[in-house]
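Cross-check.
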Amino acid sequence: MTRVASISQQIWDMKYRLKRSDGRPVDKTIADTWRRLARFLAAPENDPGFWESRFYEALEDFRFLPAGRILSGAGSGRKVTLFNCFVMGDIADDMTGIFESLKEAALTMQQGGGIGYDFSSLRPKGAPVNGVGADASGPLSFMDVWDAMCRTIMSAGSRRGAMMAVMRCDHPDIEAFIEAKREPGRLRMFNLSALVTDAFMRAVKEDAAWELQFNGTTYKSLAARELWAKIMRATYAYAEPGVIFIDRINRLNPLYYCEHIHATNPCGEQPLPPYGACLLGSVNLAKLIDAPFSEQARLDMNALERLVGTAVRMKDNVIEVSKFPLPNQEHEAKAKRRVGLGVTGLADALIMCRARYGGRDAVRLTKTWMKAIRRAAYLTSSRLAAEKGVFPLYDAEKYLAGETIKGLDEDILAAIAEQGIRNALLTSVAPTGTISLFADNVSSGLEPVF
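Predicted model, tokenized:
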């Protein structure tokens, strides 16, 4: 029986333990939860019994932690998605399109998905609305509608609704967007981030003017540094908005040839295209340390490689068995087969290796461990491609020419060239707040111990 701290037991009982509608538990122990996940996620395999055992071994003792939607939903029989992260479709700049997007957001949140939206497509406050003799109320007024919707809907599995709103740095309402959370209680269901372009950063560097425009009409011109200072002051004062370097994201995206990204999921670790979806999961590094706290302490690299391989296969199967709130989301997920494999317990693992977080040894160890995770993930996905097929939008020449992919080791590139790859993207470091508490209160994600 898995023994954990009382807070971990409470998190499991409240969020991840499968219960009947009357509250009686189906999962008697945490081991039952692992067995439920392993059996359900092994179902697509040709030899499900073998892979159920392998998946259970990876889950046991919190060595691999699937994201919360998987923990609570896999094998539950409920109509919920196993994906944590979504970016919704582009919002059309008319009343029908706006409220159709609101409906899609509500349906996605009802199944447990967190959502991201780009509100830059909506005309600014005061712009004319043709045919009705009125002025537009602007994107922030509609964000208030989204905020009220999110407060109304309790996401599946007792998960509070989560949303990300982004806006381009050249949108005429960007200043109001930056200042929005100064108003007490406003937009509290949203995280906010500004989409910052390379052109804007050049203007900041050169102390040039910056135009705020929409559909070819310039509404205001101001110093780029003035706008940048407003973002920095707001971030210092109340931690928002964040900054997303959107041109860099698109340049480094391995799928640069078939999608354009202009939003992220609620916590920002997943830049996604319209209707993009990604599932998350984390390797618990603290569980892989041999001889902890001694001078011989080290991370078992062979165990790490095996665990990553099993985790990638398990997450690839999630794509097959998950439900999706919208058909467009299912199409996106299966066309590209994104998975987001990350880490948790980094700080604890460094402590066990007697390395001070942020120190030279810690940086060296972290680089070594993260490179090993990337290697194992891409090699596993390439082997899966040989076994199960490549992701449908795979184009060998264009994929291998991508800036990020070209940075992989030569043997990985050779494997992809020969076999293809099953998952277009493979790694992503998520915050892992709740699942880290569940995993016997291990340090969260890549954060230090506060």
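Residues 275 and 329 are 5 Å apart (CA to CA). Residues 6-82+275-438 form a domain with the Anaerobic Ribonucleotide-triphosphate Reductase Large Chain fold (CATH 3.20.70.20). Passed to J.P. for a second look.
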